[in-house]
Write the structure tokens for this entry.
Amino acid sequence: MIGKLESWLYYSFGKDQYRECMSKVFVNNLNSLRQANLLVVFFTAFFAAFHVLIDLLPGKEITFFNFIAYIITGLLAFGFYIYLNYKMQVGEVSNRFIYLFTTLFFVNIMTFGIYHCVWFYDGHIAAFYLCILICALLMFINPPLFNLGLTLSAMIALVIFSVLRKAPELAILDVFNTIAAGVLSLFFSWHITKLRLGMEISANVLEDERNKYLDQSIIDELTKLNNRRDFMATFKRYVNNYRTSDDFLCIAISDIDFFKNYNDHYGHPQGDECLRVIGAAFNKLKDTMGVYAARVGGEEFGMLWFEKDASHVDAVVSYMSSLIRNAKIPHEKSKVSDYVTMSIGVYVEKLGESHDIDALYELADNALYAAKGAGRNCAIINGRDSEQYKITPPA
């Protein structure tokens, strides 16, 4: 029994998927509420004017209260419309807010419908009110229990006032019409909502698959850094679409010192673990220093970042070296340290000077070879407008 109830409550999609999709679809009700209230404003304004013109005809009695009912309903709807517009602009909207204003919208048209079709025109069948109810329900994507509550409230209110106010033969017709309208509105709103949720779930599945394949194409599985393909694409984007608030683009190529010796001594599984640790360290660069990092080769890594002041490059490079140094990965076969170290080559280019990413990459690679030639475990900084210099990490 509980399983069947949950299947009904969650449209057989499962609790988590239902809630995730409903939270996305339900937000659209805010725009639907704006449109629905605006429709009520135009509708009531038209019929208020129409009644005034009819009542001015010779022999017609002026129905002042009927006119006032249209005006009050329209003013309330217009007030809701203005407030909903404001809320959409400031972005302060919660699910409770949408539930509240959906309920207020229904109370407004329910009150008007009962007055118009039961209290004022007590000799007519309330088909007019029932049509408004059905159309209003179909404009929103509500959870089934909420829809059920709104529908039952409208049906019960109409039946009670019809029985109290109308002649028995008309009251019976109202009861049958109310039941028919309620069942039809629930049926259609149920299936429309289910269709929307199904479409949302399908879109989520497709988006997840797309992201999965995208990650596989640009993410290095071992280090979880971006791969060479994404590095070159990002490099090209940085060169051609740089930030106007910055003056320099920095290209860094780094290489693990004596990594072949590390693999030969510790074995390739341990070598992979070493790369994972370095990948995890370099993944911190984006959040801490705004540096994009990628694995561009076996033990080779590439970094890209912007600078306003070229002198700040030293601080970024020193931080890169400290990440590896603080990891304290033992390396008994290194000729420069007891732990894994890196050589780093950096080329600093003034933005807008060159769009040749291959040439810029080669200049950074040359700086890397210079760092290796200078004894490794250091960084060589070079640039078009600056002399080459070396940064050595503290002992």
